[in-house]
Input
Amino acid sequence: MDLRDLAADLVARACAAGARAADALVGESEGLSVAVRLGEVDRLKRARQRRAGLRVIVGDSTAIVSTADLSPPALDALAREACALARATAPDPHAGLPDPADLAREQPDLDLYDAAVEELEPPAAIARAREAEAAALAFAPEVTNSEGAEFGGDGGQVAYASSLGFAGAYSGTHWGLSVSPVASRNGTMQRDSWYTAHRKLDALDAPASVGREAARRAVRRLGARRVPTGEYPVVFDPETAASLLRHLAGAIAGPALYRRVSFLLGKLGEAIASPHVTIEDDPLRPAGSGSRPFDGEGVASRRLAVVDAGVLRSYLLDAYSARRLGLQPTGHAARGFGDAPGAAPTNFFLAPGPHTPDAIIASVDAGLYVTELIGFGVNGVTGDYSRGAAGLWIERGELGYPVEEITIAGNLLAMFRGIVMVGDDLVFRHAIAAPTLKVERMTVAGA
Amino acid sequence: MDVTDPRRFFLERFGLSAAALDSVLGTALERRADHAECFFEFRVNQTASLEEGVVKKATRNVSQGVGVRVLAGTRTGYAYSDEVSLERLEIAARTARFIADERSDNPSLPVPSGPRAPHDLYALAEPPIDTPLTDEIALLQRLDAAARAADPAITNVLAGLGIEHRVVLVVNSAGVFVGDVRPLIHLSVTCIAERGTNRQQGTYGGGGRLPFSALTDGRAERFAREAARQALTNLDAIDAPAGTMTVVLGPGWPGILLHEAIGHGLEGDFNRKRLSAFTDRIGTRVASELCTVVDDGTIPLRRGSLNVDDEGTPTSRTILIEKGILRGYLQDRLNASLMGMPLTGNGRRESFAHMPMPRMTNTFMLAGEDAPEDILRSVDRGLYAVSFGGGQVDITSGKFVFSASEAYLIEGGKLGRPVKGATLIGNGPDVLQRISRVGGDLQLDEGIGTCGKDGQSVPVGVGLPTVRIDGLTVGGTQA
Output
């Protein structure tokens, strides 16, 4: 049975077991990944999984179940179990599936699958990882060790069906290559990494270029020191800038809003960022990492203006949180097999600005260029922000010595409002992407 | 759910026999491998979530599968499937052994092992997974009432109860054939407090390898009051200071310091590969002589405890630091064997879909002699941090962070105003050398920790007495 039929069949079993409404997600995937370290194969892993998740609504009560056992008796038992669980939970008048009018009528082919995954064998995967790591090790004499290089590809299909009569499926692949070299000097070590990821094998960056970039990043961290505590301008490189977008996406996700745990609660229509900031979400981007033809509840995917010249124009909503907030769903239901839908971005990006990264750095007399952030010091309720950072110190408009063991702190709302320059260097290396950003002022804590 | 004998449970469930498994291991070992292993797993996870005063959602997820692993020198081959049959096992074994085919060195079997028997740390007469959902809902509602009763400023309570039942079986070419049944419960509560436009949260929780009745003796209500108290405290918090200062950590969960600052850096894989800031430092001073730190997977009923690790090795109590001197690493089979060191029972994995790695269990510092109030009194200006969110470490540079979620200024030896959350950052090989006072009040955490490494999450515990650190960077906004 194909996956779409399997999903529809599971929905039918749930309705037969007493559900007023139900939806099901069925997926299967296979993948291969290899890790090479110092030229030798370190790990090889082959994965194969199938899973089915079912949400049932009995009366106005909800339960979610999932299993890896897709045999007909197991699916019957799953449906009965889900309905029994739902009968014990409290009724919720907002529970249920989306309005049928919002469902996707078309399921565009977004070019998410690469058949090369079916031919992927260990020798070719090992060769790519080896080439990338070798380039890192050859980059400079300081590159003395390595956590290794990893290359992997996986492919699969996911199908969704609901008791509204919707049934859809799409296939997708993911490819990735990463390298993590270690550089050392005077008895101290620094690690960094670089990666390339895409839906299409041929769209990956060349292995040697990934290795060289990883090594360049590790070597430039050697000799890192601390800087005196103070307030400085902070320039985020595209990778760390994207992390700020992830925090923003979390704060405009429907569930965070109706639960009142977001610092952007009640901010629709307000300026939450500087006028230089425009943010969009585009689920229909061809071959995009985060692309999909419909959302986790079958609602049509469409491009969405989230922040327009600093003004918050839309939240990211699934059907339930939209009903709770009295708004329309935006097609951002995100769903795992074992939990109710939440809301999450797809291809979420901050639109490029007019400045080259060099011009942004040149605008800073003394400040921080951030290349890595660690820790979990972000409070989604208040927007308070405090994370460990590493990067380079900017002196008189140029990148200078490396810095580490410092923190940067502020408040996300103030940080987004304080974005004074936006780079022209947006690249979709990941589903969430941003160009170089300059925040006018943050507290840097160090020595 | 009755699973008293994991061996029989899996063989019957999947229609396998001990002889068939021997043949799979034989296939995996064929050619030039050192070691082969099958890891079977069956897991049920059940959750109930409360928001806005009611439990509107329950989930139940069942997963099962097998992972086949082959070791050859430093190489690991792994194949897993959630379809378990003899045919699938043979395919997985042939895939995993690929890595042995092109090895350049010769097979060897320097498998360190002890004849120790598995522990019996959490055999529960009433496994929590059998708890009726209606009882779980009743507990969550009592918790909700307790939190809201704390103060009218508490405007929302979010709570989640998770119950896990995990059965594993390890069969390997070294003759290990051992199973484990692992119950786990986890209760967490977040309170939102609002005063005007000031909105704050407080989070608390706990659990362990405990029966459900362990939560119904007032513990759930205590968690709720604690989360509410934290949220209310944060309503009054002022901006946190920025810069390097004396920091006093309260007992218990602030032990996350040890987990990040030294624990990960002492895992065998990073040291074998010479990637850790602690590489080659066994026998040297890495902490003040007040510090003795252990990793102990053998404490009954604890979240981080295991009868056997995920390679079938009984867990143990490993001394990591003894009076300031680095003594040992945490090992799994691969790294212990390659380093010629003893197994410590720290080979853990998130599930059958993951390879084992050296991981912590319950990591804590032994109690010292100072009275906690004397430690506070000894600080003229500094920060007192009692509750934390997560932490992270860069193993290679040794830099680590952990983020305070409840902290106070210390002024003239007395507790001052509460401050907003801030990240603390330090250097692993250095920070414990700055510990100048250790309290006699060792506490283990409530049972809430989850450790992530290389994309794998496992439950862990931490513990700490009150300690004074002379110089740690506090990442607030008040420069």
